[in-house]
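Sequence in, structure out. Go.
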Amino acid sequence: MNKLSRNLLVTAIALGTSLVSVSSMAAVKDGNLNFNFQGVIPAKAVTPADWSFVTTSGATYNPTSIALSAVSQADGGYNLETLSPEVFAIKVTSGAFTASSKIQATLSSSSVSGTGLLGDTSTLAPTVKINGVSLSATAADVATPASGATQVSMTLTSALVVPVANVNPTGGNVSSTTAVIFSADVTA
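Output:
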């Protein structure tokens, strides 16, 4: 073996050793993401014969899952807020709203659950607003349609405050189900 071949062989071995050393020093590090998927089959709307829930274009409205955004708070809790308002309308089947008609809404019931929550969650309750009016167990005026109007829009938003004591550190989904009762005067 001549001197050039020996130098090339030594260089190749040294280079190979250094590459193996560098690659053996690299350590694999794992990270993870948790994905939550949720779907809801809504209960069929119960309405009287003289009015119905519709989209703003007049098609039958059935509620779907409303996305909430999790906003981290300085104390470690979260505010879950609607990403965008849910908009629907109440439309008369025939006739029109009366001159003194007020559309009222009552928060009938609500429940909060999910893997993102820990501890006693019985006191967690969403704040539900329609047209900016907070709903409670007492009927509240949420719209005053013009006399003779046949449709009036509703804009619904919701927020849920989750204190740090109820936040699961591993994360998870949170679901809030709310039943709202509406009433409206219609002339035939």
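Check: The first helix runs from residue 3 to 25. The chain is about 10% helix and 35% strand.
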